[in-house]
Amino acid sequence: MEYEVPTTRKSIDFGATGVQEILQNVWMILSSTQYTCPLDRAFAWSAEDVDKPLPIAQARMTARLVDAIRQYEPRVEVVGVTYQSDQLAGRLNPIVKVRIQDGAL
Length: 105
Prior knowledge:
The chain has about 100 residues and is of the alpha+beta class. It has a single domain (about 1-5, about 15-100), classed as Nuclear Transport Factor 2, Chain: A (Roll), CATH 3.10.450.40. The chain has 2 helices and 3 strands, in the order E-H-H-E-E. It has a 3-stranded antiparallel β-sheet with strand order 1-3-2, with helices on one face. The protein is globular, with a radius of gyration of 14 Å. The protein starts with a strand and ends in a 5-residue tail after the last strand. This is IraD/Gp25-like domain-containing protein. It comes from Brevibacillus panacihumi.
């Protein structure tokens, strides 16, 4: 089964288990950038390409997101990354589609 994980704000469920826990972990990776987590400054993905032109930023962001998800939530496989973009505001909001690995639950 595949799940889409957007970056829209939501509250953290500290009691999440199973699929919900895994998807929440992916959301947390998407919502965080490196150097923002005090006890693990390398956590999440590097936002160093934020001010690049959108096509370049999108390509590099995709690679960085996939790498971060592989490292910090190995129970999922990234199936695809799409974006909602606002060209005028220069915003890219990734939506990551993941598949939970067999035996991860």
